[in-house]
Please model this.
Amino acid sequence: MFRISHNNTMLKLFDVTLRDGLQSVSKIYNLTEKKEILRNIILKRPQAIEIGSLVSSKILPQMNNSLELYQEGKEYNAILGNSIDLYLLIPNLKGLELASMNNIDNFSFITSVSDSFQKKNIGKTLVETKGQLRQMIQNDIITADKKIKLYISCITDCPIQGKINYIKIIDELLYYYYSYENLDELCISDTCGTLQYDKFKRIIKELEKRQVDIGKFSLHLHNQENKQNIQDIILYAMKKGIYRFDVSNMPELGGCSVTMKNTKGNLSYEQIYNCL
Model:
């Protein structure tokens, strides 16, 4: 496994090309094309790959064939000694049951800090989302050997309602941190690609005041015009103990599936390496 160490801590890159990347474009990639994308990702040797999502193909046809692609990933991974964690994004209980029937090893779940976003995305309020997530996260299907990543979207802006109240952001992050010990990763997700360094720094400092383990958080960023701002966020995150970052092998892709708005793309592997 090719990883870079920083201050004796291993950098962990989570490739989201096949999910966040492909969901942002109108083109529907067929299974053969996705297999080729997957092969190229594996050559990068990330620590984890999100293969796709079990969302309905009527809603996101870009996520067609996710189960078949996941099995392809497991075959490649077996050759590598199962050194890469493979994930599928699971939207609901029905998806979780389907994942269990198909021997999915690791799960991504998604929530946000915006009520408007949740209603548009899954037709549920934040309160209703928390109820559903509790049933999913505490489900007997999820055994101790499986990993859970929870995306917390719309930090600090929502594509529907705009700016999110700072206190609301902190409250939501703390809720999930303290509610579920079995969450392997809490992903701070910059859905709109507008996160500013000063606001990110303020969020992390507030979390530190609450004595949380900052290393349990990861970052999902999108590119911005201000490249220095992104670099400052990454460097500050590393300084504070965040070493898990979402990246893409097709960094020109990546965006919000709710509005189908393509941001300036996901971060590349090289952007993270260069910050070291």
Notes: The longest strand covers residues 106-112. The first helix runs from residue 17 to 21. The mean pLDDT is 92.
